[in-house]
Design goal:
26% of the residues lie in helices and 16% in strands. 22% of the residues are buried. A four-stranded mixed sheet has the order 2-1-3-4, covered by helices on one side. α1 packs parallel to α3 (72-81). By secondary structure, the protein is an alpha+beta fold. The radius of gyration is 24 Å and the shape is elongated. It is built from three helices and four strands; from the N terminus they run βαβαββα.
Length: 110
Amino acid sequence: AVKFHRCSAMWVKINGHPCWKAQKALDDAGVDYELVLHSGLRFRRPEVAEMTGGPKALPIIEFEDGSLLRESSVIAERAKNGTLLPAAPAAAPEPPPASPPPDEPAAPTA
C-alpha cells in the first residue's frame, strides 16, 4: 500500500485544509493507504525535508517504489479519477501453439 503523509491536525476537517482535502478524497475513492502523521508545524518536520529534498509542506503520497506525489489538489484529483495508483501490468499474451516442423506430417484430426 502507499503511504499518506499528513499533519497531525486530524481534527481540522475543512476543505481548505490541504491534508484533509487529500485524505477525504483518498477515503471517498476507497484507496488503501498507510497513514503517517507529522508535526502540524512545518519547522518541526525535518524528516519531511529529508524525504522531499527540501520542502516541508504536506500532504505527500509515497509510493511503494519510493517516488512521491505532492500537492493536495493533484492527490485529490487523481484519487477521484482513479489514476492515483499505476495500473497493474497486463498479463503476458499466450504464445501461439507450435507448428509441426515442415518435414513431419501434421497429426491427423478427428
